[in-house]
Design goal:
215 residues, mainly alpha, 3 domains, three-stranded antiparallel β-sheet, two-stranded antiparallel sheet, 5 strands
Length: 215
């Protein structure tokens, strides 16, 4: 009784042990004769290829299993046999809540920083406005300030003149101050002050006579 044909189409007679390829019919209707196979010959189609599991795993190392022989089967078995752990699920949910809380805290901190920055901008604006107001000088204040300065110089010049009249010797720069007495009085008069540095009142007359210049 012939056996099942091999991959190459070879049939072995179990009683005699002879091998042959049975006759067959070609597409054109002609008959292809049977071919006897000599003992010991094995065509390439019937040669079993040895499969090295380690080599196959190395070639398939990028696929599931990581290239370790038997790892894929073990992983599948462990994943299918091991039930889901409720504690692990609870821990994952807790971690998710913590991440969400951190995100909210970070967003709140960013909003607070924005409000603080806006507050600083408002403060800077107020300070700038204050500086602008300070830079606007009141003409009346400036006039009084200049008058006080002239009054001080006039007093010093008069004191030096009195010393000169008393016979004391003066330095050249002191004599120059005495010479400027009338000039200081004119500047005070232009600012609305009398020869004593006091503000003029309505109806007051200009001081008669001026201080004589020192020679």
């Amino acid at each position: 009784m012939p056996s099942e044909p091999s991959k190459a189409g070879i049939v072995t007679d179990e009683s005699s042990g002879e091998r042959h390829i049975p006759e067959s019919v070609r597409p054109d209707g002609s008959t292809r004769k049977a071919i006897k196979i000599r003992p010991g010959y094995r065509p390439p189609e019937d040669v079993e290829v040895y499969k090295n599991r380690t080599a196959d795993a190395f070639r398939n190392r990028g696929s599931k299993g990581g290239g370790i022989p038997g790892a894929e089967g073990l992983k599948d078995d462990s994943s299918s046999s091991k039930p889901s752990d409720p504690a692990a699920s609870a821990a994952a949910a807790k971690n998710a809540k913590r991440r969400e809380a951190r995100k909210r805290a970070k967003a709140g901190a960013g909003a607070g920083a924005g409000e603080e920055e806006d507050g600083e901008k408002v403060t800077d604006t107020k300070n700038d406005e204050k500086k602008v107001e300070e830079t606007v000088v009141d003409p009346e204040v400036e006039r009084e300030k200049k008058a006080r300065n002239l009054k001080k110089k006039l007093k010093q010049a008069k004191d030096l003149k009195n010393k000169k009249d008393a016979g004391e010797g003066l330095l050249p720069e002191q004599i120059a101050k005495v010479i400027k007495i009338n000039e200081l009085i004119r500047e005070l008069d232009a600012l609305g002050f009398d020869a004593e540095g006091e503000p003029k009142t309505e109806g007051s007359k200009p001081a008669e006579g001026k201080e004589e210049e020192a020679s």
